[in-house]
Specification:
The complex is a heterodimer.
Chain A: H1 2-31, E1 43-49, E2 52-57, E3 69-72, H2 90-96, E4 101-105, H3 118-137, E5 142-147, H4 149-160, E6 165-171, H5 182-186, H6 194-201, H7 206-216, H8 220-231, H9 235-248, H10 256-268, H11 271-274, E7 278-279, E8 282-283, E9 292-298, H12 306-310, H13 312-315, E10 321-326, H14 332-335, H15 343-353
Parallel strand pairs in A: 3-4, 3-5, 5-6, 6-9, 9-10
Antiparallel strand pairs in A: 1-2, 2-4, 7-8
Chain B: H1 4-27, H2 30-60, H3 66-88, H4 91-100, H5 105-108, H6 110-125, H7 130-161
Helix pairs in contact in B: 3-7
The chains are: A alpha/beta, B mainly alpha.
Amino acid sequence: MCDAVNTYQESVWREVQDNIRRAERWWELCLRPPRAEVGITPKEVVYRENKASLYHYRGEAKKFKPIPVLIVYALINRLYILDLIPGRSFVQHLLSNGLDVYAVDWGTPGDEDRSIPLDYYIEGYLDRMVKKVMALSGGRQISLFGYCIGGTLAAIYAALHPERVRNLVLLTTPINFEEAGYLARAVDKEYFPLDRLVDALGNIPPWFMQAGFKTLNPLGDVAKVYNFYKNMLDESFLENFFAMEKWVNDNVPFPGEAYRKFIRELYQENLLYQGKFTIDGRRVDLKRINAAHLSVVASEDTIVPPKAALCMKELISSQDNQAVQLPGGHVGVIVGGRALKTTWPRITEWLLERSE
Amino acid sequence: MITWMELSDQYFQWWQDAAASYVDLFKDQPVLLKAWGGFLDQSLQMKKIADQVLDEFWRAVRLASGEEIVRLHERLNVLESHLVELKERDWAEEVDKRFAGKVVAPEDLKPLRKRLDGMEKQIAEAPADHGVREGIAHLEAKLAELLGEVGEVKKIVHRSSSSLDARPVTRKGATGRAPDGTSDAAE
């Protein structure tokens, strides 16, 4: 009994000491807020049109695989989540395994970009970037890696130009929007004034998008603060935490007309899944995709629930066709602690086997 | 023996799970979503009216409204995209396609010339707004450069057009996009 009391007293005393150290650290952080250095992998801009840029990452591998990888990122948030900090850079991981990596950075749309249609993002920007990558690598095919909405764009592109895509990797990519959970319900045409929103705001501002994601998990911020309090004496946790915070709060507007089409035809009418979606007047038939395909979905994803993404496997005609469910949330599945041991090796090995 | 932090973790987890179930129940209510949609609709209507009033004010003091400036920038964007498209186009392939189809190339280039003239006209007619003046000058320089390139292509086509009939077909003629848009054989 006496031992138990002593142990408990020790535990409380240790906690008091930790709390004093936390208070000191908190004060230090307030006085000198750390600056998270993100997107550290050396890269060069090999193509630019308006705000969109195509990056070519420079790796240290002596020989790269002949099939380059083109990362297509979403039209919201920033690309550097895939190249966050040393040790948490998926791009760096691909490079160190000998893959030649390019990435599409859509940039920050201004008011003048509000009329750019979704069609132009795919058949204009993306198409030219794919051609540029092919020209630079000297090949006739590439691997497309799409994340979130970027995956939807990549899948549409692969359906329109199957001959150019050797491998298609989709990470937490919504395809069946009827299964898109709360976000699909929140933009239901019965409640959501889509036209009024685009007409009044032009581009959809980051705060609006941010509010939508916050509503998905209103308690997420409380959990974040609690975790911060618990781990604020751990320097590596802090480095990762501030880098993530920078990314979470570094949003870009969604171009207005592209948003209108994206929400109406994909979220509200689910046309892509039904095979009725059109780009520049061309029907997007996912059955035309014959590239080797890997879909990675996150088991705890609330933005793109697994059901919304797993159906891709059933919709295409690829012989080499896989879909896997890995632990983590929408972002955690690619930058979380577990991702380094699960998602990264899984995707890299899959690509390496198919990039000769 | 459970430590203080473990106890607090357990309590936090319990609270989070309990609160999440209530929050989920609440946020999915159609009534709430409808009310939110209605509120958003009204706010956006008010914003639109406020924007219109502000635009009228700028016009009244003989200054360009925000809307006009944005439209101008939009036009510049479109022009830049056209220029990039023309620059990135594989001209050798274009000429080859025309030979393959045995079509006299100078006539083929007419629509392109017309398009470039149209762009020049657009640039010339664009109001010389202070913020955009530099952009237009830049685009004009690009256009001149591009016109030079088009001239070069024309020369090649003229030079080769005399021996056009004798030239063997090296590439299948380019076919347009299929009407239903599903065929991509041309590419």
